[in-house]
Amino acid sequence: MDKSSTRSPQHVLHQRASASSEGVELESPRKRSFLVGLGALIGSVGAANLLGGNAISVAMAYQRNPNSWQSSGRLFTQHQMQLLRDICQLVIPKTGTAGAADVDTHGFIDNQLVRCHPSWQQSQVSELLDLIDANAKERFNKRFIQCSEQQQLVLLTSIEEAENEFGHDDAEHFAFLKQLIVFGYFTTEVGATKELAYLPVPGGFTGSIPYSSIGKAWFGGL
Questions:
Q1: Using the 8-state DSSP alphabet, how is residue 32 labeled?
Q2: How far is residue 86 from each of residues 2, 106, 132, measured CA to CA in Å?
Q3: Given a cut of 70, is residue 145 above it in pLDDT?
Q4: How far apart are alpha carbons 172 and 195 in whole angstroms?
Q5: Entry pTM
Q6: Cβ-Cβ contacts under 8 Å for 119 (sequence gap 6 or more)
Q7: Residue 114 and residue 96: Cα distance in Å, rounded?
Q8: How far is CA 182 from CA 12, 93, 203, in A?
Q9: Given pLDDT bands bounded at 50, 70 and 90, which one contains residue 95?
Q10: What does the alpha-carbon distance between residue 178 and residue 14 come to, in Å, rounded to a whole number?
Q11: Distance (Å, rounded) from C-alpha 70 to C-alpha 156?
Q12: d(CA 213, CA 222)
């Protein structure tokens, strides 16, 4: 990967992001600006699914802990935290700047799910992690965290494309997890100021722009 190029959070993501925010209403222009930046990465529907209630304030208040994967979280076991950490780093790997695992996106997801999402979504992600681990054992005779990066990517690609042991529901659940990873990463200082093009004072809103004309997505100060 060219470290000088704009990072694509869709390293394992095949969907093309959309910059449109049509049909989404937020009470604050600053929040709307944030939605535009996030929508440019995961689409407005995905962004809307993540930003309900107090999701933004909870996200911004989360205190990053680089060692969160070494112990159980609020929702996940210690092993699930470590597995999730590996997935985060595959989705947004370290290049010229920190990757998703480097900024504790896995801990963010654990906290965000408990604070802002219903129990069925919490179970959905937890069960997905267990499914990934079980399939790693079946296919490679070892746990996901013990697999090589190439083996891990093979598994995640199979989920994304609903192939082999994985069905369309699994692909949808993985898509939701990827949205959480992107959301968590781009609410960090690194993601917001180095990967997104940061504007302390947003310069207005323009919807429905082709993604190719954006370059880096814009992050308006919250």
A1: H
A2: 21, 9, 12
A3: yes
A4: 26
A5: 0.70
A6: none
A7: 32
A8: 12, 12, 23
A9: confident
A10: 11
A11: 23
A12: 24
Q: 49 — phi, psi (to 5°)?
A: -65, -25
pLDDT one-digit tens code per residue, 172-217: 999 899 989 988 888 887 665 565 544 343 443 333 334 344 344 4
**DSSP string spanning 92-103?**
S--SSS--TGGG
Taking a C-beta distance cutoff of 8 angstroms, is the pair 77, 93 a contact?
no
- What pLDDT digit, counting tens, does each position of 40-72 carry? 555 655 665 676 778 888 888 888 888 898 899
DSSP 17: P
Q: Do residues 79 and 119 lie in contact, with contact meaning Cβ atoms separated by under 8 Å?
A: no
- Assigned token pair, 207: 């919807």
Return the minimum-mean-pLDDT range out of 47-51, 87-91, 114-118, 159-163: 47-51
User: Distance (Å, rounded) from C-alpha 143 to C-alpha 79?
Assistant: 10
The DSSP H or E segment spanning 47 is helix 44-50
